[in-house]
Amino acid sequence: MSLFRAIPCLKAPLIRVNRVYCQNAKSFSTSRVIIASISDVIKRDHREIEVYYQNIVDATDDDSKTKWQNQFSWELSRHCISEELVVYPAMQDFMGAMGTSIAEKDRQKHQVVSPLSNFFFLKK
Prior knowledge:
There is one protein chain. The protein has helices at 8-11, 38-58, 62-113, 115-123, and strands at residues 13-17, 20-23, 33-37. The chain is mainly alpha-helical. It has one domain (3-123). Strands 2-1-3 form a three-stranded antiparallel sheet. A hairpin with a 2-residue loop joins strand 1 (13-17) and strand 2 (20-23). The longest helix is centred in the C-terminal third of the chain and has 52 residues, at 62-113.
């Protein structure tokens, strides 16, 4: 069973409107609407962050490298904060001790990865 299937609020569809996600949104007349689950959004975030990192590594000039470093830092920070505010509390509420344990392991992983976003700013 998927972790996200065990947590009802993480199965609820999100509606993406120009990079803004609204849970249980009704309709938007002037924007493109994409429906995705929170677990899909998290997976997509992970893939995007990996691509941004690879773009930093592959950059051939300072302007491109700076652009991708800024994008990487912004997306990594946004992603970590989103998980802290939405996913981890839901895991703890709906999965009890097991959810708390998983959330703590994920927080430890973020403690390793988060300094990467600051590393780029300190290098300048």
